[in-house]
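Title: Comparing notes on inverse folding

I've been comparing how different people in this forum approach sequence design from structure. To keep things fair, I'm posting one structure and asking everyone to reply with a full sequence. Here's the target:
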């Protein structure tokens, strides 16, 4: 079927009654889908796991919206069967698949099929589209990532809740391209804290005091033991890095604040 034949699938004119009927069906259909999403899926999530409920919700949304679109086209007098089975429609779908709307739709479907991530997973999302600035101090590279828990995966985007409570919405197509660190099977992780101190302050004394402080800090793991080392030198100061393992992912900021507060009491920079 040639693309030039596509206009023949359309009616020569739309009647006022068909436009009104299509508008009513669109409104009612949208309200039905919205109510199902708000109440039915919420009740469903109480009986099955979040990831399975998310998959059912995704497939149901896709099916209902597809049916709604086809129904509206039929009411408007458009030859739906020719659109579905014609080569023109297939060619249009293939051509438009790379566009934003369908790209996100197909990416969302692939996220569910491949189980790239699941609702409830805690991840760090690293992508060049939303890169962070590399700091000039300390002189270390920082992963340009956004860390949080996945709250929802719908037709077009994935919702991520950061540890500070902020909600991020990432396009599914970008999520498929991103580097993802998945913490769903990990309770804690290594935390690296870096600070600077004057060369007049002996490193060995600092190391011993820090080791004593960390040994009584309940927020971290003692095995493997914390590692304290010099990582950089200058004329008047040197940089110290502390590598420790936190017991829970969300304790990172609390651990970091505890270590830096201890150091500040010693007059460190």
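Reply #1:
Here's my take.
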């Amino acid at each position: 079927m040639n693309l030039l034949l596509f206009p023949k699938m359309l009616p020569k004119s739309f009647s006022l009654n068909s436009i009104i009927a299509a508008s009513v069906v669109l409104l009612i259909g949208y309200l039905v889908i919205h109510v199902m999403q708000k109440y039915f899926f919420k009740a469903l999530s109480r009986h099955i796991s979040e990831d399975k409920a998310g998959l059912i919700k995704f497939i149901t949304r896709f099916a209902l919206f597809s049916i709604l679109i086809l129904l509206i086209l039929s009411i408007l007098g458009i030859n739906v069967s020719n659109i579905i089975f014609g080569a023109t429609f297939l060619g249009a779908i293939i051509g438009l698949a790379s566009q934003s709307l369908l790209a996100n739709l197909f990416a969302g479907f692939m996220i569910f099929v491949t189980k790239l991530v699941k609702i409830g997973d805690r991840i760090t999302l690293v992508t060049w589209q939303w890169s962070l600035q590399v700091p000039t101090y300390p002189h270390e590279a920082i992963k340009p990532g956004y860390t949080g828990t996945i709250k929802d995966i719908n037709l077009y985007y994935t919702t991520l809740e950061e540890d500070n409570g902020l909600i991020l919405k990432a396009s599914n197509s970008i999520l498929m391209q991103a580097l993802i660190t998945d913490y769903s099977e990990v309770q804690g992780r290594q935390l690296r804290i870096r600070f600077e101190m004057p060369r007049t302050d002996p490193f060995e004394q600092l190391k011993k005091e820090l080791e004593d402080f960390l040994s009584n800090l309940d927020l971290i793991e003692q095995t493997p033991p914390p590692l304290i080392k010099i990582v950089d030198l200058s004329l008047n100061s040197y940089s110290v890095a502390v590598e420790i393992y936190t017991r829970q992912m969300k304790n990172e900021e609390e651990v970091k604040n505890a270590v830096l507060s201890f150091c500040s009491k010693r007059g460190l920079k």
